[in-house]
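EI: anyone free to look at a 428-residue chain?
SC: sure, send it
EI:
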Amino acid sequence: MSAIALSYGRGHLDITLPAAAQPTLIRKQALPKLGDPRASIVAALEYPIGSEPLAELARGRTSACILICDITRPVPNGLFLRPMIETMIASGIAKDKISVLVATGLHRPNLDEELAELVGDPWVLANVRVENHYARDEAAHIDLGFTKTRHTPVKLDRLFVEADLRIATGLVEPHFMAGWSGGRKVIAPGVAHHETIRTFHSARFMEDPLAVQCNLVGNPLHEEQLEIVRMLGDVYALNTVLDEERDLVCVTFGEIIASHQAAVDFVSAATSIPFPRKFSTVVTSSAGYPLDKTYYQTIKGMVTPLDILKPGGTLIIASQCSEGFGSEEFREAQSRLVELGPERFLATLMAKSLAEIDEWQTEMQLKSMRLGKVELYTTGLSGDDRRLTGVDMIDDLTGAIERSIARSGDPHVAIIPEGPYVVPRFAA
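SC: here you go
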């Protein structure tokens, strides 16, 4: 195992390991691919979890709204949107009363060719309304009040709330704050107002020790998301699970909470990988396209493997950052981090009930910076953007691994080609 390929952009980045390295490769457990993905999707719609089949759910409804994740998630929308929509039409919902809403959260909208790539089926674009969610558009939201548990303001996209049939779709994968993506998360923060999202991303949630990847028990974000779903009423979900080749290995449909939990149960053992030791050198990626389009998204890959990094160790991450740094708000947060340093920056966050937009990703970066040394390989950042990362920039992965081994005196190197889609955990 002298050469390793890391997920990078739309392909892979080959690295040669130094002779002294003793590598441990960390991958998801292999899951069997679905032989006929479209047939599996149709079967999921006909035999749901905790609800009637989609054809029955759609009968007698006057309108429908389907949520899809934005371009940062490799969800196979092109496989399932048309069968879902055709089922709704056959059950009596008029085409002009069916909408697809891109759950952007506070990310930028997906437009033109990018929207076509995201939807993945020209038939869908030609036959139903497809819109982006805009979290800062006050008129586009309905105020549902506050959650009882933590008093989170709940404002959601009007198009989804007012639909007679509401369905969220997404990808179930580890999420470094909410435990797992998909299901309820596509609603909040996916189509939530900026105040709802900024409350979720305030320090009282972000610094909670249970707000971590692969954990739903006691996770405050997950609990608030469930409460919001219950405030909405009847909501359904289609959840997908992909393997390393981005092929479909699982699809569930039904009541949103039950169907999401079924997908989590399917994938959790294959994704959360126990290890009896920690490493002084961890080499990972940002999972390639589309997750490594920006430095903003890259931070997920910096946080996911921290459980197996020794204190004072080196985390080396490769991310293409093909679209550069991220939003202007994120750039401002990173500027404050570089100016103030980690401790003073965190102190400015602790008293806020509403986080500034996109500063939560900078807050998550602090977790890796507090534990060890972070080094980034990228071909997409230049000039001042490299300084604003706040981490050490490298141009040679082999040399960086060699230096880390020399610093620590520990030749053992953990290598995670698929980045944050795999969660290694220390299990002594």
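EI: The longest strand covers residues 309-318.
SC: 👍
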